[in-house]
Design goal:
Elements (H helix, E strand, L loop, with lengths): L5 H13 L8 H15 L4 E7 L5 E6 L2 H13 L3 H8 L3 E3 L10 H9 L4 E9 L2 E10 L7 H24 L4 H27 L3 H14 L4 H9 L6
Length: about 240
């Protein structure tokens, strides 16, 4: 089978993200589609999303690998790094050479280098001046992404942001923030389910998530519902 062109992949992803403009969708699965596409199209070894919870604190919502997740978690705990900088400033933060920022963000730089990442790009997720998180790309090669690639990442991040926040424009309720909080709460369940599957199937955490997500998609069930059933021992995969 001939692999899809970059343009075709982008079109398919934008269509998927546009589906968020309906009433009912799986936020966690949607955002995992976003970061997986970014990693594939933009030659990143890992990608992740950090989103602000209801109290304004950033949390890791989605990651393509445990390595990128660990780097993101370390930044949030230390309160330093390009992911936080992109969220706070609302601007793209590019780190072409991680080794050169050891004086600025020592904890981030050391952790990233230990995981094999040599360059990082963090794109804010924002709409009309409001920033809700950041899309983070981790690469094993040195250098800054071309402007065209950064524009692609910004476009994907923007449409995902619109999908998350669109209900706010339709009503004065706090639906959007509730939706964000529900997604973050769902992530806790998913991490627990990954642990269960990793133990029962002797898988690493990446393999456990793939198994979990595949089951949800094949059976047309929400990812968080499958995770809850696995954790509560109502479902054996």
């Amino acid at each position: 089978m001939v692999s899809r062109t970059r343009e075709a992949q982008l079109t398919a992803t934008f269509v998927t993200l546009a589906d968020t403009l309906v009433a009912d969708y799986d936020v966690v699965d949607l955002l995992h589609t976003l970061i997986s596409t970014c990693a594939e199209l933009l030659d990143a070894a890992g990608a992740g999303l950090t989103l602000a919870a209801a109290d304004g604190q950033l949390e890791v919502l989605a990651s393509t690998s445990e390595e990128s997740r660990l780097v993101e978690l370390m930044q949030l705990r230390a309160g330093e790094g390009p992911c936080i900088e992109a969220y706070l400033t609302g601007t793209v933060v590019a780190v072409p050479d991680v080794a050169e920022v050891t004086d600025i963000w020592p904890l981030f730089a050391n952790k990233a280098l230990a995981q094999g990442f040599r360059s990082v790009h963090c794109i804010p997720m924002q709409l009309r001046g409001e920033t809700i998180g950041s899309l983070n790309l981790f690469r094993c090669t040195l250098g800054r992404l071309p402007d065209d690639d950064i524009a692609v990442a910004r476009g994907l991040a923007d449409i995902a942001t619109i999908g998350i926040l669109h209900q706010r424009a339709m009503s004065e309720s706090d639906v959007a923030r509730q939706q964000l909080q529900q997604a973050l709460d769902s992530r806790v369940l998913i991490e627990q389910a990954k642990g269960v599957l990793a133990h029962t199937h002797s898988l690493d955490m990446n393999g456990a998530f793939t198994l979990l997500r595949s089951y949800a998609r094949q059976n047309g069930v929400r990812l968080q519902d499958v995770a809850r059933d696995v954790v509560e021992r109502r479902l054996t995969i």
